[in-house]
């Protein structure tokens, strides 16, 4: 999986128990792209990832049928 995330995301709360507060969240995932199965050979791909500002990307790799 290729994961696009925002390092920080702030939201002004308008109603409810947090009304009037500004909540800041870290590493908010914006998009996950399934890259499929890799056979171990060299490969090069290009993807457009949804991030904002100083957003980043993470590559998630797992072996076998793990969860």
Automatic annotation (TrEMBL):
<dbReference type="InterPro" id="IPR010634">
    <property type="entry name" value="DUF1223"/>
</dbReference>
<protein>
    <submittedName>
        <fullName>DUF1223 domain-containing protein</fullName>
    </submittedName>
</protein>
<dbReference type="Pfam" id="PF06764">
    <property type="entry name" value="DUF1223"/>
</dbReference>
<dbReference type="InterPro" id="IPR036249">
    <property type="entry name" value="Thioredoxin-like_sf"/>
</dbReference>
